[in-house]
Amino acid sequence: MKRLSTFLLLLFPFFLQAQEISKHYKIYDVKKQQIITLSDIAADLAKADVLFFGEEHNDSIGHYLEAALLQQLSERYQNQVVLSMEMFHTDVQPVIDEYLNGNISEKNFIKEARAWNNYKDYRPMIEWAKTNGLVVIGGNAAARYSNMVSRSGLQVMDKLPVASKKFMAPLPIDTAKGRYYDKFIETLGGHSMGGMKIYQTQNFWDATMAWSIAKAIKANKGKKVLQVNGRFHSDEKLGTAAQLKKYLPKVKILNISSFSAEDFNNPDWKKYEALGDYIIATDPTVKRSF
Q: pLDDT tens, 216-262?
């Protein structure tokens, strides 16, 4: 464990300033109704296939915990782990593989894989995967396709060349109304046809990530999958998690909802327990990554 902590601290210099990182987060097991550790989550995955880590994209503590959890899973399951990420797109999978194989430089990887502006926050996971031979999946649909859906709806995907369609979930994509739709509209701030097209885009992202995970499971028999995405995509096991069940009905899923909690000092766990199997409340006083 000391080796893991040293690796994390080298890659997260912010935490070199912290006396105890554990003071900045609390992990709650909804089923057990008690505070637990990352090690407990890693152990629980023995009975599941996929663990969703739903994050806030600018949460420094959440990013630290993602890397720590990946490493614990890697050690516990002898590197039989696949890392699937919203932060990379399906069409850059060759670039990801080239970097993990040591064929290209990190500079080229960051540029040509179209890494997010805050890639430094996700770099520890990529570097751990590279060092330990883990499979990394770019799971999300490329922005050019998402923009098409936002402008013209899902049906426009049928007009793409056959070669392009291999980078996205096949049509039809379920956009059924219900709890997920209601949450989305609440977040958007009202109903409109434009909003419906954006909702289709949201489902397009979800379906493509779920399709990517399903393919990874089939190609990596027996391996555990850690899926990292914005928490709206997997809270309440909706979104990507629900779409995955449509591709693989028998898949066993666990999910984490991680966020900066205003009531961090005394969290109201009852208020949050519908969000996931595990709730991670992070310290809102810690500087955000952007």
A: 999 999 999 999 999 999 999 999 999 999 999 999 999 999 999 99
210 contacts 247 by C-beta, under 8 angstroms: yes
Quickly count: other Cβ atoms within 10 Å of residue 136's Cβ.
21
DSSP tally for the chain: helices H, then strands E: 12, 8
Instruction: Give every CB contact of residue 185 below 8 A, 6+ residues apart in sequence.
Output: 191, 195, 199
List the domain boundaries for the chain: 28-282
Asked whether residue 13 carries a pLDDT value surpassing 90, the answer given is no
Beta strands in 20-141 (DSSP E): 25-29, 34-36, 50-55, 81-89, 135-140
Q: Which residue has the higher pLDDT, 229 or 289?
A: 229
Q: What is the pTM of this model?
A: 0.93
Q: CA 173 from chain center: how many Å?
A: 20
154 vs 196: CA distance, rounded Å: 11
Q: Which two tokens stand for residue 280?
A: 């991670």
Contacts of residue 182, defined as CB under 8 A and 6 or more positions apart, other chains included, come to: none
Strands, sheet with 81-89, edge to edge from the N-terminal-most edge strand: 34-36, 25-29, 278-282, 253-260, 50-55, 224-230, 81-89, 135-140
Does CATH place domain 28-282 in 3.40.50.300?
A: no
- Tallying the residues shown for the chain, one arrives at 290
The CB density around residue 177, as the number of other CB atoms within 10 Å, is 11
Place of tokens 């989550």: 41
